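Issue 218. Parser rejects a valid record. Input:
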Amino acid sequence: MATSNLLYCLSVLSLLPFIASITIPLSPSHPNPNPTSDGYQRINHHVLSSLTRAYHLKNPQITSTTTQIFSHSYGAYTISLSFGTPPQTLNLVMDTASNLVWFPCTRHYRCDNCTSTGSPAIPSFIPKQSSTAKIVGCLNPKCPLIHSTQDLQCQDCDSDSTNSRNCTQICPPYFIRYGLGSTGGIALSENLNLLNQTISNFIVGCSLTSSRQPTGIAAFGRGPTSLPSQLGLRKFAYCLISRQFDDTEKSSTLVLDSASDSGDAKAVGVSYTPFLNYSEIAGKNAFSVYYYLSLRSITVGGQRVKVPYRFLVPGPDGIGGTIIDSGSTFSFMTGEVFEPLVAEFVAQVTNYSRAQDVELLTGLRPCFNVRGAETLSFPELKFQFKGGADMALSLQNYIALVGDGDAACLTVVTYGSAGPEGVIGPAIILGNFQMQNYHVEYDLRNQRLGFKQEICT
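Output the parser choked on:
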């Protein structure tokens, strides 16, 4: 890829293959190289990032192999992927609610609010060092998929013209907003290297500038340019190790499976619930990349929370429904769901006093004083899904000890009284904190989600 082409792209920006089953390491992930040591501030960061992530998701812009998954202190999990010839390896955040795989690109990668003075340079993919990197042209049939439109206009590139083959216009630059940042760049066609297999003509974003997004995204959503779609996966599954809001060398696994011939067979001990086919809501095509689930009820200590039905089922106005999102830390619930949940939870917790000072510091509620308690006792939180699949969470999946461990808080967030108005999108977003030590299976062939509790090591 010529340097002149890259400079041109920078100036512009300023204005299915076969694989078997692959297992990849999955790790917890911190864009800030110097995370605060203040436990309350760190929890508050996760609250804010979960809320802004929820706002983005509700208002979107646009044979077996195994890999490791690593956990990070900023609330995300990453995997390592290799692109190009020769391969260049980068750590990317696993995100089940986005469509485009992208990575930091070029030596002059600009990322605002990503590093502090003296921090090492952000690892980037260097296109000119790869003999297989190609800029995606405007007439490439995958270009409209990146921009979620079939009406993409390519100037001087009339598809009916005899000169269309000589068209040099590139696919228009992309711009993506996330909960705590954004990124923009150009599309590349490149080799994706998975162990001993090479997937050619893989569409990936070459990001030239970002805000608060130093690490690229491994998109696992339902969109046409996501990793599962481009690899033709029948299934993928992961197990998220327990997180303590710090970086760790420990990892669990992510399995990519495109050769599954299990049909409708169910794995032992796994509960399944169907995905909802929600391809378009109130004109928001971006919602189609989410994995919507049919949540029937929420119970606290066996008592059913009185949740208005219209928030459990997505409506034609784009409001309601439940999605699962590996890119969110804490689960989000809209106020009409969150407030009844908190009321039921507080009513049942009579063995601890409220820690409202901690609630103000962290942004979580309710929080309780547990100083001196040898063991913790809280009512069980359970999600019941269509198909009889019940997710009874362990205490570590919905209660977090904060500060010096003197307080315990419910790890579900919502907008405050001054929250955004007119927000549509899912009413409930299940985050990765709630998925710790769960085997989570995305059975794309049978359009269902499977899960079971499991120690992830």
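Fixed in the parser; the record now loads. The chain has seven helices and 28 strands.
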